[in-house]
Amino acid sequence: MKAKSAFWLESDNQKACEIARLAGYEIVIFDMEHGTLAEPLLDRLIPFCNGLGLETYVRVGESTQPRIQMALDIGATGVILPQIRDLAHAETAAAFAKYPPRGSRGLGYSRTQQYAAASNAFISAENSLRQCYVMIETAGAFAQAAQIARLDCVDGLFVGPADLSLARGRGVFAARPEDIADMREIATVAAAAGKAWAVAAGNALYRKAALALAPAFATSADDLSALLVGFSQMWKQHDPA
User: What is the pLDDT of residues 131-140, one digit of tens each?
Assistant: First the structure.
């Protein structure tokens, strides 16, 4: 199956979402960890992007119960959990994305319930529909990636190559053979557990290697980089000298 194309949204720019969708992107990831988005904006941007036909994922600012539940209650397709330290941390954090008895997500009153009372069918559907990806970007999470992939509340692994390169002692990410080998290892353990995997792949060489391993989705852009490239190209056209 062909990997879906994803982009990061780092700022409050719904027109960037419209343009990305017109260009062919299928998934938007709201970056609450490194972007400048405030959580209340998700209440507007998530349903807006869902209406455009974009799948909506939230990389939460921190992998805690309030952050995870808020993103899912607003209607995100799924959450991406950053800076997971190890298996124990993954088990605790991922449980916040699934209702009991599978996990420990709290039941509130929200858009996902169509502002009505919940039902057992709703609980079952939510646990299946809302996705939880654990980022593998620390040395501890990498060492225990196979065990993390087997957790019931984890739907997939998400490779964070920049932090993983730093954590593995290679310095700033540069799509080295070792970076690609780490990605291949994560893809392998995800597949062995019957789980999906995804990857941040802005680097062209790294993205080519990733796509050969059949991720569920791969990122290739963000709104700020798109603006930089667009303005740079337009400036060259304006002043070719």
Answer: 999 999 999 9
